[in-house]
From TrEMBL:
<dbReference type="GO" id="GO:0003700">
    <property type="term" value="F:DNA-binding transcription factor activity"/>
</dbReference>
<keyword id="KW-0804">Transcription</keyword>
<dbReference type="GO" id="GO:0000976">
    <property type="term" value="F:transcription cis-regulatory region binding"/>
</dbReference>
<dbReference type="InterPro" id="IPR020603">
    <property type="entry name" value="MraZ_dom"/>
</dbReference>
<feature type="domain" description="SpoVT-AbrB">
    <location>
        <begin position="5"/>
        <end position="53"/>
    </location>
</feature>
<dbReference type="GO" id="GO:0005737">
    <property type="term" value="C:cytoplasm"/>
</dbReference>
<dbReference type="InterPro" id="IPR037914">
    <property type="entry name" value="SpoVT-AbrB_sf"/>
</dbReference>
<keyword id="KW-0805">Transcription regulation</keyword>
<protein>
    <recommendedName>
        <fullName>Transcriptional regulator MraZ</fullName>
    </recommendedName>
</protein>
<feature type="domain" description="SpoVT-AbrB">
    <location>
        <begin position="82"/>
        <end position="125"/>
    </location>
</feature>
<keyword id="KW-0238">DNA-binding</keyword>
<dbReference type="InterPro" id="IPR038619">
    <property type="entry name" value="MraZ_sf"/>
</dbReference>
<dbReference type="InterPro" id="IPR003444">
    <property type="entry name" value="MraZ"/>
</dbReference>
<keyword id="KW-0677">Repeat</keyword>
<keyword id="KW-0963">Cytoplasm</keyword>
<dbReference type="InterPro" id="IPR035642">
    <property type="entry name" value="MraZ_N"/>
</dbReference>
<comment type="similarity">
    <text>Belongs to the MraZ family.</text>
</comment>
Length: 148
């Protein structure tokens, strides 16, 4: 399980170094194979899945009937944009240039461990998101029983 927030630097070639704390977990889960794709729900953010987790998500998304426009949009953003990556000998992975540009990810980024996947945020989008508070009128029924 991935959790935690790590400030990341994207090098001039568009690579990020996978934090050492995650390297063994990723190697064990997917032999180091990862998949980048768009986050269809948040701007300024990409998703990064270990291959085994990605295959489950991919299959669920592809099983949606493509007669609905929202299903096709999800399929395009997730499956159509999926890019397979593997760490090099230094533990770096290449963030696809088209995805970096679309998400506005430049030199400084934030990698969040989100359970079964990672989120890679542009520094600006992450800062804006964490500065937002959750208002009382936004609290869902599922949130009411949390003991925070």
């Amino acid at each position: 399980m991935f959790q935690g927030e790590t400030a990341i630097t994207i090098d001039d070639k568009g690579r990020l170094a996978v934090p050492t704390a995650y390297r063994e977990l990723i190697a064990g889960a997917s032999a180091g194979r990862l998949v980048f794709t768009y986050n269809p729900f948040e701007t300024g953010c990409l998703w990064l899945f270990p291959l085994n987790e990605w295959e489950t998500v991919r299959d669920q998304v592809n099983d949606l009937p493509s007669v609905k426009a929202v299903h096709r949009a999800l399929q395009m953003k997730l499956v159509g944009a999926a890019a397979h990556v593997e760490p090099d000998s230094a533990g770096r992975i290449l963030v696809p240039a088209s995805q970096r540009a679309a998400a506005g990810i430049e030199k400084k980024a934030v990698l969040l461990g989100m359970g079964t996947k990672f989120e890679l945020w542009s520094e600006q989008a992450h800062l804006a998101k964490i500065r937002q508070t959750i208002g009382e009128d936004e609290i869902s029924d599922a949130m009411m029983n949390l003991k925070l």
